[in-house]
């Protein structure tokens, strides 16, 4: 039995020895893991608040293994801003039995600041009374700094997006570096490599630190300029002990640079700038600090370069915009010249026919005057001769009006008019243009076909198509102009069909037709199939441009040898013909006895105007020029009710006179009259009523009614 007990005891001892060895091995492994992970272990008696700490835990607080470390020492090491948070966390753990976890900052005896995270597990007795809190602490300073640098870089990105000036960008970057690394100063400077100086325009400084903006010589602060020239970053942890700055340490400390980093920036192999970071105390610079500064510098350089490129692009864009504007202006001028040349081509072709027609008209007038001078002319024949003179004068006025419409220099001036009436009106001119061997027929519906377009360009387009037809028929054949309405416009060239109401104006000839390979080119400017000197090739391009600008299209149908048909599609205007015509007869006439100041430099025209106005019951005063008219108005402006002035006069023009009267006597109506004026052609009527020469007594009365109507409307507005 004793032998059995001895055997059992030996087995038990062997097992205990094995277990003890295993436990020791596990403790060694745990201690290694704690040391490797730099975990500091501790235990706090929750009754006596006696703290037991491992050597690693003391090291976290900057203490040696043999140094005492109490709970009070631990609490005092926590920075003031974090003490309340650690106290509340401990109270919650004791009260609720929850795990203890808190992040906080401490200050070591050397003055270094660290971030720690502490985790612990509370233990209680059988009655639930707290016994102790056991846990570990870990240095997370590197993690916190990395997070801070990451947030700082994100903030820098936001800041750089909002800045344009290079100096502002550099200062913003310096501020981010300074606040993130918690140093005394940070900034950028421009380096003069030969003079070994740095020029600092603006630097960021922590509270209590003085700026060093200005020009500084590197040699005044040590020999590290040699490192910078080689492209190396100068890293000084303590100016008093570093051999490069030991002699100049006092100068560096005077500018709060006991420790510093100088990082050179290069362009095309030359050092051109420097990022500097200064601190007023010794500091161990970490590789992460250098990496952060380098990243900020790179992003700043990229932002500055991007802004420079953007400015250059903006300048280029502005230059391109100006070039486009200049080219557009040149193009508009060229287009205007093109339109004018198109008109002049038509006018040139009309000249011979117009001279013939005017000679015929003058023959009628001269002959009628000679017959009227005979003493034995009967009243019946006298009336017939007078009517012939009046009718001939009207026909001459229409011819000159059409000629001026072709020749006037102005942009498109859309107005609502009946296309059928315009075709009828231009028919006599086209007959003269194409010659007597070509029959000109017009087919116009009874109902009005209203379009909204430039009437002059419309007439020019008809003339250009007629000229094209005449040349295609070699001066002999039939020309048919037809006006009609259409629902929708067919697809043409690359454009799809369009719904809506349109007016079509077609010009059909019996000429030679157009070859299939030429149809697509006939609307191109200067394209012509005629011989040299027989045409500019501008006529059909004017037709194309006019219809496109008017919201329409022009189609051409032709079979070679069987003639051609050109069809202009113009959008129909939704306006009644009655709304276009002026209701002159329904407006009240100017009161009899009203006084009209007539301004006319031509004595014969002035005498006719005053006599006509007198016959109509008005009083008149004649002035031979603008200055005389102004003098009469200055003497007694209230005596006059209307000013009726010629436009083209020596000295002050009628337009200038009207504008001066409008300034001095804003309520005085002004009527202008002119046979043709380049001023009016280019600038319009300037808001004045206009009576075209030659005018009849009825037309003069009608415009006076319009002036009276405008005056009554104005008085009505004032009464309202």
Overview of the molecule:
- The protein is an alpha+beta fold and 720 residues long.
- The chain folds into four domains: 20-139, 2-Layer Sandwich (Beta-Lactamase); 145-310, Beta-Lactamase (2-Layer Sandwich); 410-578, 2-Layer Sandwich (Heat Shock Protein 90), CATH 3.30.565; 585-719, Rossmann fold (3-Layer(aba) Sandwich), CATH 3.40.50.
- The protein contains 19 helices and 24 strands.
Summarize the structure.
The chain has 720 residues and is α+β, with helices and mostly antiparallel strands. It has four domains: 20-139, PAS domain (Beta-Lactamase, 2-Layer Sandwich), CATH 3.30.450.20; 145-310, GAF domain (Beta-Lactamase), CATH 3.30.450.40; 410-578, Histidine kinase-like ATPase, C-terminal domain (Heat Shock Protein 90, 2-Layer Sandwich); 585-719, Response regulator (Rossmann fold, 3-Layer(aba) Sandwich).
Between the first and last Cα atoms, what is the distance in angstroms?
A: 139 Å
CATH class bucket of the largest domain: Alpha Beta
Strand content: 15-25%
Radius of gyration: 51 Å
**Broad shape:** elongated
The overall pLDDT average reads 82
Biggest sheet overview = 7 strands, antiparallel
CATH superfamily of the largest domain: Histidine kinase-like ATPase, C-terminal domain
Structural class: alpha+beta
Helix content: 40-55%
CATH topology title of the largest domain: Heat Shock Protein 90
Number of helices: 19
Instruction: Tally the beta strands.
Output: 24
Low-confidence stretches: 531-537, 582-588, 715-720
Count of discrete structural domains = 4
Proper CATH architecture of the largest domain: 2-Layer Sandwich
């Amino acid at each position: 039995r004793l032998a059995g007990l001895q055997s059992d005891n030996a087995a038990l001892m062997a097992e205990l020895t094995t277990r003890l060895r295993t436990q020791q091995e596990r403790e060694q492994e745990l201690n290694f893991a704690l040391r490797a992970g730099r975990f500091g272990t501790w235990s706090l008696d929750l009754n006596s608040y006696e703290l037991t700490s491992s050597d690693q835990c003391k090291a976290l607080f900057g203490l040696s293994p043999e140094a005492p470390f109490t709970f009070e020492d631990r609490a005092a090491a926590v920075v003031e801003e974090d003490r309340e948070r650690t106290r509340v966390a401990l109270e919650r753990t004791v009260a609720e039995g929850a795990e203890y976890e808190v992040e906080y900052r401490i200050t070591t005896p050397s003055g270094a600041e660290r971030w720690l995270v502490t985790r612990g597990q509370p233990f209680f007795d059988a009655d639930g009374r707290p016994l102790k809190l056991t846990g570990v602490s870990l240095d997370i300073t590197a993690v916190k700094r990395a997070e801070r640098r990451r947030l700082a870089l994100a903030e820098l990105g936001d800041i750089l997006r909002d800045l344009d000036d290079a100096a502002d960008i550099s200062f913003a970057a310096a501020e981010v570096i300074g606040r993130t690394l918690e140093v005394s100063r940070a900034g950028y400077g421009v380096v003069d490599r030969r003079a070994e100086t740095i020029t600092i325009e603006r630097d960021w400084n922590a509270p209590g630190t003085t700026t060093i903006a200005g020009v500084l010589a590197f040699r005044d602060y040590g020999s590290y300029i040699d490192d910078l020239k080689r492209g190396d970053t100068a890293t000084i942890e303590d100016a008093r002990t570093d051999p490069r700055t030991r002699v100049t340490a006092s100068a560096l400390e005077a500018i709060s640079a006991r420790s510093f980093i100088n990082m050179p920036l290069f362009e095309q192999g030359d050092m051109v700038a420097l990022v500097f970071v200064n601190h007023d105390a010794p500091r161990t610079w970490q590789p992460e600090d250098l990496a952060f500064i380098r990243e900020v510098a790179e992003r700043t350089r990229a932002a500055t370069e991007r802004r420079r490129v953007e400015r250059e692009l903006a300048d280029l864009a502005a230059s391109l915009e100006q070039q486009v504007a200049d080219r557009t202006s040149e193009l508009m001028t060229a287009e205007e010249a093109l339109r004018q040349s198109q008109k002049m081509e038509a006018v040139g072709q009309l000249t011979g026919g117009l001279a013939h027609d005017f000679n015929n008209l003058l023959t009628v007038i001269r002959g009628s005057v000679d017959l009227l001078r005979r003493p034995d002319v009967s009243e019946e024949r006298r009336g017939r001769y007078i009517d012939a003179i009046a009718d001939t004068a009207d026909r001459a006025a229409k011819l000159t009006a059409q000629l001026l419409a072709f020749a006037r220099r102005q942009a498109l001036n859309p107005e609502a008019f009946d296309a059928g009436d315009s075709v009828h009106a231009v028919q006599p001119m086209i007959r003269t243009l194409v010659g007597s061997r070509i029959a000109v027929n017009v087919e116009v519906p009874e109902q009005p076909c209203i379009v909204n377009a430039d009437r002059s360009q419309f007439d020019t387009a008809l003339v250009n198509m007629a000229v094209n037809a005449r040349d295609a028929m070699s001066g002999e054949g039939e020309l048919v102009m037809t006006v009609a309405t259409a629902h929708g416009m067919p697809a043409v060239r690359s454009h799809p069909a369009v719904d809506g109401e349109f007016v079509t104006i077609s010009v059909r000839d019996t000429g030679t037709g157009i070859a299939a390979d030429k149809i697509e080119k006939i609307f191109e400017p200067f394209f012509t199939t005629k011989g040299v000197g027989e045409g500019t090739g501008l006529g059909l391009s004017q037709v194309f441009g006019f219809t496109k600008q008017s919201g329409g299209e022009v189609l051409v149908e032709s079979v070679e040898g069987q003639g051609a048909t050109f069809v202009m599609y113009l959008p129909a205007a939704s306006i009644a013909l009655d709304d276009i015509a002026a209701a002159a007869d329904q407006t009240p006439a100017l009161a009899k006895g009203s006084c009209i100041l007539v301004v006319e430099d031509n004595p014969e025209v002035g005498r006719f105007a005053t006599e006509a106005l007198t016959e109509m019951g008005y009083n008149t005063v004649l002035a031979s020029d603008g200055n005389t008219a102004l003098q009469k108005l200055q003497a007694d402006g209230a005596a006059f009710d209307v000013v009726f002035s010629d436009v083209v006069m020596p000295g002050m023009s009628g337009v200038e006179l009207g504008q001066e009267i409008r300034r001095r006597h804003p309520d005085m109506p002004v009527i202008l009259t002119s046979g043709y004026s380049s001023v009016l052609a280019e600038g319009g009527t300037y808001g004045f009523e206009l009576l075209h020469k030659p005018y009849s007594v009825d037309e003069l009365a009608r415009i006076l009614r319009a002036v009276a109507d405008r005056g009554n409307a104005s008085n009505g507005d004032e009464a309202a």
